[in-house]
Specification:
The chain is α/β, with parallel strands linked by helices and 417 residues long. It is 24% helix and 14% strand. The protein is built from 10 helices and 11 strands.
Length: 417
């Protein structure tokens, strides 16, 4: 109860994490070499409320990870409903310019799921420490707010013809660009609520081709937008099916979105804080708060190898481990990235179960159309069995079918021995 009150008192704060590209030599080939981590560190140093929020949240997550709920999950895979908002220029037909095709969108969602499932076949590579996170993403089938999808044949996607001011997205602390997006896609709070959908916006560029994507830390209200904003030129996967989407060469494998989804689920960069969190006594309280991601002082754009810190972590038998440049939360190129570690998976899973409960609830899966029909998971149905107490032979037991919100089966047959 005390922890709950603590979180309530600090709602309204915002911590930011970004995937940033250095100023490009030309606009088509930016390279990732740094980020706005310094802004985050400045805000931690300057605002005690943000500092205590971050520390309290991390302590809560560590407690949940170290003392997991012993009750087994009926469906261990958590499903996140997704809506993709495509911002494009006036007159751009579907499949041209910024108004990307449904095939390109599907290629990105499929790659995101492969990344989170550690599906080495679809990823085309494998990492030594990669795991299945038991988290998956599904394009929603039912829209909340608008009367329907932009094209009912292609659910989960909304398309908006807009101006260059919106397409050339600006991130700033005031949320100027975010407010411009929300004025179009979320005219009121009933449209695609943040609690019910992972909202993803694609734009032409961010901060004049410097930023490839960003995801504000969730559950806080100071920044108006909750979700992921991403450059359309890194949204898609050209590594399968002979795809030839208009993507930046270094980032054509669809892993930038995995990085941003990690931030959305409360992961930090592997190089957070540099060479801290380097032993078993501080790895959950410093750096990226993960004990099986070796600390890193470097943010290289290449695949390495590198060993920028000295560490002694139990996950590596207390032997100094090299930087894991295959980790999605590093800044290596797309063709290097293939790993969410077990510890990162634990943190994201705990975050979803305890701080985004509505998003992955059975009720929400039904409301967004993710459960049932031809969607991502089978129809849901539970039975209620009630008895007055100890049941003996010939004692009546009340059996009924729960068909309320959250249960998506439309027909069923119960059989008894």
């Amino acid at each position: 109860m005390k922890r709950t009150r603590f979180f309530q008192t600090i709602i309204g704060l915002q911590v930011f994490f970004f995937w940033i590209a250095a100023t490009p030599v030309n606009a088509q080939t930016p390279t990732l070499t740094n980020c706005y981590e310094s802004i985050y560190q400045q805000r931690l140093a300057q605002d005690s409320a943000i500092y205590y929020y971050t520390r309290g949240l991390n302590n809560a997550l560590n407690n949940l990870i170290n003392n997991p709920n012993p009750t087994p999950q009926s469906n261990p895979t958590l499903i996140i409903p997704v809506v993709v908002h495509i911002m494009h220029g006036t007159g751009e037909a579907v499949g041209t310019g910024r108004n990307i095709s449904y095939a390109q969108i599907l290629s990105q969602i499929n790659k995101l799921n492969a990344n989170f499932a550690n599906d080495t076949v679809l990823m085309g590579q494998s990492g030594q420490y990669g795991v299945n996170t038991d988290i998956q993403f599904c394009l929603a089938k039912i829209p909340m707010g608008p009367g329907g999808w932009s094209d009912p044949n292609y659910p989960g996607v909304m398309r908006y013809a807009t101006t260059s001011t919106v397409l050339n997205h600006i991130y700033d602390n005031a949320g100027t660009g975010a407010q411009q997006l929300l004025a179009i896609t979320h005219p009121n709070t009933s449209f695609f609520p943040f609690a019910n959908y992972l909202n993803i916006w694609t734009v032409d560029n961010i901060n004049n081709n410097v930023v490839l994507g960003y995801a504000p830390t969730p559950i806080l209200n100071a920044f108006p937008l909750d979700g992921i904003v991403i450059d359309v030129r890194v949204f898609g996967d050209n590594t399968v099916n002979n795809n030839n989407f208009n993507l930046l060469t270094q980032y054509d494998a669809g892993t930038v979105l995995a990085h941003e989804a990690g931030h959305y689920l409360n992961l930090m960069h592997t190089f957070q804080g540099g060479c801290v969190g380097d032993n078993q006594t501080n790895c959950q309280t410093q750096g990226d708060f993960i004990c099986d991601t070796p600390p890193s002082a470097a943010t290289p754009g290449s695949c390495g190898p590198a060993n920028s810190c000295t560490d002694a972590l139990p996950a590596y038998n207390f032997i100094d481990a090299p930087d894991n440049l295959n980790d999605y939360m590093s800044y290596a190129d797309d063709n290097c990235l293939n790993t969410f570690t077990f510890g990162q998976g634990q943190r994201m899973y705990a975050y979803l179960q305890n701080f985004r409960m509505v998003l992955v609830s059975n009720t929400n899966l039904a409301l967004t159309g993710v459960a049932g029909g031809n969607s991502c998971i089978p129809s849901l149905l539970l039975a209620d069995i009630n008895s007055p107490g100890l049941s003996c032979v010939n004692t009546p037991v009340n059996f009924s079918t729960n068909t309320g919100v959250g249960f998506s089966a439309v027909s069923w047959l119960w059989q008894f021995p």
